[in-house]
Amino acid sequence: MKVYRNFFSLWVFAAAIAFAVRLSAAPAAETEAPAGGLGPLAPAGEGNPAAGLTDGLTETPAPLAGESRESAKDGGEASVAHIREMRFFLTIPDVVDQGGTLPVLLRGATGLQAIEAQFSDASGKKIFSFSGFRVSGPGPGSAPGSEEGESSDEYWAALGGISSVQQPGVYDFALSLFFNEAQTLVVNRKIRVEKRTFVFENIPLNKAMSELRATPNARRDAEARELLALLSKSDTSAVYHTAAFCLPVAEGFRETSFFGDRRTFLYTDGKKASSIHYGIDYATPRGTAVYASGEGRVALAKDRVITGFSIVIEHLPGVYSLYYHLDRIDVEPGQRVRSGEKIGESGFTGLATGPHMHWELRVSGNAIEPKNLVKAPLIDTNELFGIIKKDKEPVETAAAN
Fold this sequence. Notes:
Layout: H1 7-12, E1 16-24, E2 30-32, E3 63-67, E4 69-70, E5 85-86, E6 89-93, E7 95-97, E8 101-107, E9 112-120, E10 126-134, E11 155-161, E12 169-179, E13 183-194, E14 200-204, H2 207-214, H3 218-231, E15 255-257, E16 262-266, E17 272-276, E18 279-282, E19 289-291, E20 296-304, E21 308-316, E22 319-329, E23 336-337, E24 342-346, E25 357-363, E26 366-368, H4 372-375, H5 381-388, E27 397-398
Parallel strand pairs: 1-3, 2-13, 7-13, 14-16
Antiparallel strand pairs: 1-6, 4-13, 5-27, 6-8, 8-11, 9-10, 9-12, 10-11, 12-13, 15-18, 16-17, 18-25, 19-24, 20-21, 20-23, 21-22, 22-24, 22-25, 25-26
């Protein structure tokens, strides 16, 4: 199943929803978005909530019945909302593959202060969560209803990642939109994770490599905890790169291991250990130039027990690229790098059976298929506005009295 990053394709294949949301100062708290819907939603109180769905792409979405949650301040009465009504467009995919990304795009939510998304199982147990962040739009006047000098604060995005070991099935997705004056709107969706096929492989290790994996090692364990903590961080101000990634090595190098490979390491003492391969391995001669796959900030650059000389770059909130088994490192923690800038050279360090370069992407803490974000942008706002342009009416917001 293809992971639909192109939002025009999401419309065509019914893999996402684009709708307008009406926010009012009423006491109710949540709204349920329809599964797989393309067309407008019937307003509240007009019979079946599924009524009004159409097959066309040129209809103007009617408001979704959504109400705000007002919280009391300092034990007093609930605050009075300044925003009485608004309409905005939101896209959320219906289907994501194992190892795919879960992009959320929103435009036109005046007064929005923060976005939090949560992916949960049927029992309500949280699997992972991620935060939204502001992004720049496609430029003044390029979207319907936009005006010269329109603020980029009108455009928000959030990006989650589905683990390759996430079991196929239907999951609950809750998107919480936090507005000024303590209002919160929660949009609930059902998202289906589809199965994909992965490679199974046995990897014999020599004695030194067997001991490296199997023998207790305090430094190795501390480095694992450090990396896990780093990849779990999400700084909403860290918006460096939204375009597609470039490959970390020149084209033409053979891929020797793939994302999601199910590995069995064979130790010299006859024991075995299972593992998941989180990235792609390129068979590069020692000293091959390695490039930053996107603009960002170097979050880690050091020698590690298992991964050897390693680099981690932060590109977006909760979005990181990782480069392992390098022969040398040419950057320092905290350094800003450009997309395609040389950051080091490939090597044969750490747990490696031959010279190669391991490239990995993490989104909301989960390893995802790197190729997906080479084929399409991480955050494609232009595609979102392309969808909106098909509507007859522009995005509208109504301010409070």
